[in-house]
Amino acid sequence: MSLRALIVRRLVLGLLTLVAISLILSLGLEILPGDVAEAVLGQSATPDTVAALRRQLGVDRPLHVRYLDWLADLARGELGTSLANQQPVAELISGRLANTMLLAALTALIAVPLALSLGLVAAVYRDRWIDKTLSIAGLSTISLPDFFIAYLLTVVFAVRLQVFPAVSIISPGMALADTLSALSLPVLTLSLVVGAHMMRLTRAAILNLLHSPYIEMARLKGLSPRRIIVHHALPNAISPIINVVVLNLAFLVVGVVVVEVVFVYPGLGQLLVDAVSKRDLPVVRACGLIFASVYVVLNLTADVLALLSNPRLRQPSSP
Fold first, then answer.
1. For the CA atoms of the chain, what is the radius of gyration?
2. pTM of the full predicted structure?
3. Looking at CB atoms within 10 Å, which of 101, 188, 196, 300 has the fewest?
4. What's the CATH code, domain 99-271?
5. Percentage with pLDDT > 70 across the chain
6. In the chain, what is the straight-line distance between the N-terminal and C-terminal CA atoms, in Å?
């Protein structure tokens, strides 16, 4: 398949995926007990008051009618209005999205080079103490849930050592030092989670090439294991490593929800959780589509970069 055909096919599949996700989100909130009128008015509201607010917000209409209206608004570039506070959804998510991207960018700047370096070190010193130590640390991190790592780091660095704040609240007027201090624990949590995956997969991608014929020829020439890995295996492992990095970046952007909730970080994930608790369907759909779009785009980027870095993948397969 040519590069252009791959991009077109993935874009079409991505659009179908986004439509399916928006339907699932709509049906999921419809199944949950309660609605936005009850969430806004509280349990003490009378049935007549709740019914009046439902008519005012338009949530008394059938779901398919509301969904088609939302699709029409989306076609015009509008994300709708929040049912909970009557603010435009675009205004609600703009600042939150910037905070989430800031968190993801700082994590990527730390996790990607560190994980690739440690994966390369583990491959160079295979079966030695440093490789075993990194493998045990990586497996331990992968085995623990994100929220457990977040709470563990909070106990150590915020409660015991009191180095970083336990709550990561930032505002536009904060100083750079205060912002970085508030982001330290969320960034450290995400770096451990994402970095462990990238380190192990980088190590595996390099070691898988060590049984190739050209690697055996390099060994017969008397080259050192370090030179074989760095100068011969690593260049040919770039394609799978690129896939590992990009896919983990996709997980990083989508997987910030739990970490943002734990540290009360004002990001898109926290906004999504708040909107679900209020049954605010327009906000939930917008946040879900943003997360899904990022994941689809990064998956497409991984496929394109794999084709560009490995010309053999662009060759037509023989019948």
1. 24
2. 0.81
3. 101
4. 1.10.3720.10
5. 94
6. 13
